[in-house]
Design brief:
Blueprint lengths: L22 H9 L8 H12 L6 H16 L7 H17 L5
Helix pairs in contact: 2-4
Length: 102
């Protein structure tokens, strides 16, 4: 779904605040200020739509339920329903971004 290049070196990697960079590097600094702006809204919308087609099976739901129980009983941390729904949505978005439907 997303055709993003593999991580690697970037002209922005060598830029640091206050360094004595060459003129070429200073010109590149303007290009490096905003990393993801063009097309980000379209990517987010596409992933959101694709996540609605991801099926979350009973095992994944049981895992979230068990995690909630563990957090409550062993860690004394309450996890709200709203937070569980958000966690499930993030899992579905992750699956969609990796091209999975389950």
């Amino acid at each position: 779904m997303l055709s993003m290049p593999s991580p690697g070196s970037s002209p922005c990697d060598d830029l640091s605040v206050g360094s004595s960079a060459s003129t070429d590097t200073k010109a590149g600094a303007d290009e490096c200020e905003v990393v993801f702006s063009e097309g980000l809204d379209q990517i987010v919308d596409a992933l959101s739509a694709a996540s609605e087609n991801v099926y979350m099976d009973g095992d994944a739901c049981a895992l979230l339920r068990d995690l909630r129980t563990y957090m409550r009983e062993d860690m004394n941390v309450e996890v709200s329903d709203r937070r569980l729904v958000r966690a499930a949505r993030l899992l579905k978005i992750s699956a969609a971004s990796h091209g999975r439907s389950k």
